[in-house]
Each structure stands twice: as structure tokens, then as C-alpha cells.
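Hi everyone, sorry if this is the wrong subforum. Our group has a chain we'd like a structural model of before ordering constructs, and none of us has done structure prediction before. Sequence below.
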Amino acid sequence: MSTTDYATLTGDYTIDTAHSRTGFVARHAMVTKVRGSFNEWEGSAHLDGENPANSSVKVTIQAKSIDTRNSQRDDHLRSNDFFEMDEHPEITFVSTSVAAKGDDVFAVTGDLTIKSITKPVTIDFEYTGTATDPFGNTRVGFDGAVTINRKDWNVTWNAALEGGGVLVSEKVTLEIEVSAIKNA
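Answer:
Right subforum, don't worry. Here is the predicted structure as C-alpha cells:
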């Protein structure tokens, strides 16, 4: 049973992107995983510790900031083969509901928009703690992940492999690690 007094967390928060991560994992050539992240993004949240259903979150990601530690791959991901970043520069997530799902886990459902296509997704977030930083800020932490099919957002490019299978998996796991600062 959780001993966290969630009522004390109620308030508005700004995501500290310098201490947070939005990333993804996709299978490459059917044998390994490629990890990446987005380096330019911002987000905010309202937490209602007494009634999580009144909580909300909004995140905006600059698609061009994709980083897989390989410039050639990153350029390909920015192209019309994948994200069409000139036409669709932002990826957004806006929550539509939040529900407690057991001790320290919250199901956050919202609208994920990629390439101007909006689909609902539910991400389970685990509350990882609260701390007062050296500057007197109240910080909260949450980690979440969800697996999506990139084709649902018209990210469809692929190449067949000689021995069968494809170069890039359809399933992509989104990983979110959040440190948020309570607004004064």
C-alpha cells in the first residue's frame, strides 16, 4: 500500500526537460533495438492528488530534435519517409483522462498527434517520488511507457530484408521519464 499523501502534490507543474526524457525504442533489422529521444520539448501538468481524474498533462515535442546518435539515420527519420518534419514540425500529447491504477500507478489517456493524425493512447505512469531540490522547488517524478504501432500515424516506410522480415519494426515503445517542478 502506498504511503504517499498525494493531496500534498496538488498543483500546477512545469516539466523540467533538462532532467526528463521523451524517447523511443524500435527494433532494427529484426535483431537489435535502436533507442532515440527528442531533445527539444516542453510540457506542463496539473496534478490533483485528491481526485486524479481532475489531473491533466500537455506535451509538445519538436520533431526535428530527434536524436538516435547517428546523423544519417536522424536525417532519414526527419524526411518524408518517416516524420515529414517540414509539414509536421510538432508531435503533441494532450491528456483526456487520468485514473489511479493501483499503488503509485496512474493511467494517463490522451490524444497523441503525429503527422497531423490524432489517436488515443493510454500510458501507465509510475510515481517515482517527490523531493525538494537545493533551490527550494518541489519536484515530482513519473516514469511511463507505451507501445504503439507507428503505421497508425502514417509512419510507414520500411525495407524488406533478404532473409525475411523488415528493417524497422512497426511497434515502437515510447518511454517518458519526467521530473516536474511545482509552479510558485
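For your construct planning: The mean pLDDT is 89. Residues 6-182 form a domain with the Lipocalin fold (CATH 2.40.128.110).
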